[in-house]
Amino acid sequence: MRPLPRELPPVEDLGGGVWSIPVPIPGNPLGYTLVYALETPRGPVLVDAGWEHEDSWAALADGLRAAGSDPADVHGVVVTHFHPDHAGLAGRVRAASGCWIAMHHADAEMLRFVAEAGVGDGSGLETAQLRLAGAPEDQVAAYARTDPRLDPPAAPDTELAHGELVDVPGRKLRTVWTPGHSPGHICLHLEDADRLFTGDHVLPRITPHIGLYPFTLPGGRPDDRDPLGAFLDSLAQITDTAPADVEALPAHEARFTGLAERAAAIAAHHAERLDLLAAALQRGPATLWELCAALPWSRGWEAMGVVQRRLAASETAAHLRVLERRGLAVRTAPSTGPPPEVLTWRRAHG
């Protein structure tokens, strides 16, 4: 087994029957996912489970033992969203314990869509979408060689809805639907301890990735997705409903207070990004790839590999969708019918 990252924080007893267990994400700059274990009379309930990897499994199992339990004792896993660094180990925990897995119904539907559409399975959808974005053929070929496929996470036993209490014996854990980072992303309010598990919705330093992908729906289906618009609405909702002094327990980095201030800073970041993109459209019609190249990125567009560029393109597409909804941008292709070879956007007139 490879050694765990040196920066991995310790397992922590946070008090009130809540434990923090860092689970590494090998080879990923995020470093780790913070899995939270809630003590209950019927065994721990986990908030997220971590990445599917032997090192990750060992860290989760050791963390549970440090908290006085074992993977076989787990009563349930509630997943904040379906991404592999959160849901990847949920199926393995269920196999070890017979526990349930729960996630929001919109993410359960997303898993079904991913299986149907072939996202990430080498079927050709990925390269077709890159061509729609205007990526050069050498970039399309480079992406095809990366083989970024991942096994899909385990399907849930329970599909949650906004406001619903999760099956956590002796505790009050309420579902707060916060779409954006994924269609069914949820925060979880532990009402008996006044803590809020924020998943990837609000992080203390990182701005969560909000992307629109695929750029068009298969078969020319009507496309009304607006992940960034939903995310911005969710930011406002979570700060309106959570107590002002609530302790936020995110899935990455470290727990924090000042949720409203952090949410406002994230919203301001996206407002600035929307302004930059609107200014880029003033220069004339452009493909998604050209617009990405015109925008500033923390790593720089030229330094990005093609997988990172695909993620940047999906983020830019999400911002373009908001500009479209606000009447500031127009996509040259209709939203229904067969997609054109390359999508372009222009500034709206009038």
TrEMBL record:
Coiled coil: none annotated. Residues 32-252 form the Metallo-beta-lactamase domain. Signal peptide: none annotated. Residues 331-350 are annotated as: Disordered. InterPro entries: Metallo-B-lactamas, RibonucZ/Hydroxyglut_hydro, Sec-metab_biosynth-thioest, WH-like_DNA-bd_sf. This is MBL fold metallo-hydrolase.
